[in-house]
Amino acid sequence: MVPVLAVFLGPLELAVVAIIVLVLFGSRLPSAMRSLGQSVTSFKSGLKDEDDSKPTDSIDEKKK
Question: What is the DSSP string of the chain?
Answer without folding.
Answer: ---HHHHH--HHHHHHHHHHHHHHHTTTHHHHHHHHHHHHHHHHHHHHHHHHTS-S--HHHHH-
